[in-house]
Amino acid sequence: MIFGIGPGEFIGLAILAIFFVGPERLPKFSSDAAKFLKKVKNMANTATTELRENLGPGFEDLQPSDLNPKTFIKKQLAGALDDEKPRNAPQPKIDPDLL
């Protein structure tokens, strides 16, 4: 799957492209679209790199998906919960008579 598009959807988009763009202009259109996507990808990579550099130490492993508010909150809560419990702390035992 490319960009969340399945094979059937991809074939449908190709048929629509041939219909709307025309078979004679389709190669140039697809080449221009590929160049545009490459530029967008390079811009996104550059922006991510600049963001990592400007934020400073501690953000070397920053991913764009980490900036999603839901992901950020989940990550922070998981980190806070991990910090509360020591790694080698004994596990509490339940008295079988209480069950």
Strand content: under 5%
Report the principal-axis shape. Answer: elongated
Strand count, sense and closure of the main sheet?
none
Q: Which parts are unreliable, with pLDDT below 50 for 5 consecutive residues or more?
A: none
Total separate domains: 1
Determine the structural class based on helices, strands and strand pairing. mainly alpha
Mean pLDDT over all positions: 78
Oligomer state equals single chain
Computed Rg: 25 Å
Count of runs of 4 or more consecutive helical residues: 3
Task: Indicate the percent of residues in helices.
Answer: 55-70%
Beta-strand segment tally: 0
Taken in chain order, the helices and strands follow as: HHH
**C-alpha end-to-end distance:** 50 Å
Can you tag this structure with a few keywords?
single chain, 99 residues, mainly alpha, 0% strand, elongated
